Amino acid sequence: MNSACVSLTVQHLTRCGAIQRIGELRSTGGRKREVLKLNSETAYFVVVDLEGTRIRIGLANFLGDVRYRWEEDVNYRNRLEIRDLQHGINAVLGNLDPAERSRTLAVGVSYTGLPHASGGITAVNLGWKDFPLGKHLEQFVDLPIFYGNDGVCKILAERSLGVAQNCDNCVYVMAGVGLGIGLYVGGRLVTGAREMAGEFGHMTVDPSAADKCNCGKTGCLEAIASSPNIVRQYFELTGRAGQHPKSYPVTEVFARARAKDGAAMAVIERVGRYLGLGLANVVNLLNPELIVLGGDYVEGQDLLIPCIRQTLQKHCLPDLLEGVELKASALGHEGGLKGAASLAFSHALQDEELLRRMTSPLQLQPQGSGNEEAAALTGGGSAKTRKERKGKPHGRTSHTRRPKGRQE
Ligand SMILES: [Zn+2]
Question: How many angstroms does the Cα of residue 332 sit away from the middle of ligand 1?
C-alpha cells in the first residue's frame, strides 16, 4: 500500500478501536512517527485444544491471551463424548459478560488426527474414527467454527506469538502421545491436497527397527521419538520390558539422563539421532531457516538439541544447513489454545463478515492505569464501516458455518 492508503487505514482502525496509539518515536526531521499496537480486546475467540490426554477450552483475546480456562483429562483411546465438550464450551461461554459475548466472533479447534472428506475426524487419542465433530458442535455453538490439526495450529501460534515471528520458512515439531509437525514454506502453510500433509511421525527412519508404531508399521519415527515410546525404551533397557506405566512421565527419563543414568542417556541419544535424521530429510527437502521444538521436547531441549544438531550436520547438505536455527517453543502448555486462537484469527481476517465485525466501532473505557486488559467494552456496534474487501476463509484447513444470527 502507498503511504496515503496506510494513513487512511490506520485512521479507520484507530477510530474503530482495533489499534491504539501508544507513543511516538523521536522525530528525525521527517514525518511524525507514531507507535501503534493491536487492541487486545478488539475481538475474542472460543478456543478448544483436543490434544493428547487432556482437553482444554478457553476464551482468547485478539492477542492470544487466554482466560476462563476449562480443562479435563481424557482417557487415552476411550471415546470422548460430545456432551463433555459441550459442557466445557458452555462453561466458558457462561462466564462471559454481554460485552465479551458480543465481541466473541468464532471458535478455533485444534485436534490431533486426520480430517476426512466426509467432514469427520479420526483422532486416536479421543477414540474417534471419522467422527462428525463439526455436525455435533453446530448443534449448540452459534458461531463460525474453524478446525486445524495441532501441527497447523501450533506453527500458526509460533508465527504470530512465538519464536517463529516473521519467519516464512519454518518447521515445528512436537512430541506428546504422538509426534506432529507444522510446515511453513515460502510464507504459506503446507496442508496437502486433502489436508493430511505433515505425518512426520510416520516417516520411515529405520526400516530394520523393531519398534512397532501405532499405525501398525515398523520403522516410523513416532515409534521411537514420541513420549510414550521414549519411556518404553527406557524401561526395556532397564530390564522392565512391558512394565512401564502410562503415568510415568517422559520428563523423568530426561532427568535421569541429566543425572548420567546410562540407560536414559542411551535412549535420549537414540531419540535425538532419529529425530535429527527425520529433520535432516526435512531440511534437505524444504530449506527452512528455523526448526522449533515443541510439546514434551521443550522439557528435554538441553539434551536433544545437541544430538539433533550433530545428526543434521552429518546428513544435511552443508549449504542447506547454513543458518538453520534450532529453538524450543516458549508458549508452554497453552500452545494448543494459542494455536486454536491463531487459527481462528487467521481465518477471521479472510472472512468478510467477521472482518466487518472486528472493525466495527468499539468504545473503550480503560480502567486503571494503562491496563488495556481491563478495558471495558460497550456494544458491538453496527455496520458503519466501509464494505471490506471480499475474502474467503482458507478452506483447506477449516470447515466453516455462518452464524445463525447476529451477535451484536
Ligand atoms: Zn507409523
Answer: 27
For residue 216, the CA-to-ligand 1 centroid distance in Å is 6
Taking the centre of ligand 1 as the mean of its atom positions, its distance from the CA of residue 177, in whole angstroms, is 13
Q: How far is the CA of 212 from the centre of ligand 1 (A)?
A: 8
Q: How far is the CA of 374 from the centre of ligand 1 (A)?
A: 47
The DSSP secondary structure of 108-139, one letter per residue, reads: EEEESSEE-TTS-EEEGGGTEEEE-HHHHHHH
SS3 75: coil
Residue 197 alpha carbon to ligand 1 centre in Å:
14
Are residues 311 and 272 in contact, defined by beta-carbon separation less than 8 angstroms?
yes
Q: What pLDDT shows up at residue 363?
A: 52
Domains and CATH numbers, the chain: 3-38 (no CATH), 44-151+335-356 (3.30.420.40), 163-330 (3.30.420.40)
Span from the CA of 200 to the centroid of ligand 1 (angstroms): 9
pLDDT tens figures, 69-115: 999 888 877 898 999 999 999 999 999 999 899 999 999 999 988 89
Share of the chain above pLDDT 90, in %: 69
Specify the residue for cell string 512401564: 244
Q: How many angstroms separate the alpha carbon of residue 208 from the centre of ligand 1?
A: 14
296 within 8 A of 250, measured Cβ to Cβ: yes
Please provide the average confidence, as pLDDT, over all residues in the chain.
86
For residue 160 the three cell numbers come to: 504470530
Q: Closest Cα to residue 180, out of 155, 212, 163?
A: 155
DSSP letters for 39-85: -TTS-EEEEEEE-TTEEEEEEE-TT--EEEEEEEE--TTSPPPHHHH
What does the pLDDT look like over 127-137, one tens digit per residue? 999 999 999 99
The label of the residue with cell 549449504 reads 319
Q: What angle do CA 231, 237, 238 make, to 5 degrees?
A: 90
Longest Cα–Cα distance of the chain, Å, equals 74
Angle, CA 39 vertex, CA 36 and CA 41 arms, to 5°: 175
pLDDT in tens, 306-320: 999 999 999 999 999
In a 3-state reduction of DSSP, which class is residue 388?
coil
Give the Å distance between the CA of 79 and the centre of ligand 1: 21
- pLDDT tens, residue by residue, 270-307: 999 999 999 999 999 999 999 999 999 999 999 999 99
How far does residue 210's CA lie from ligand 1's centre (Å)? 12
* CA 179–ligand 1 middle distance (angstroms): 10
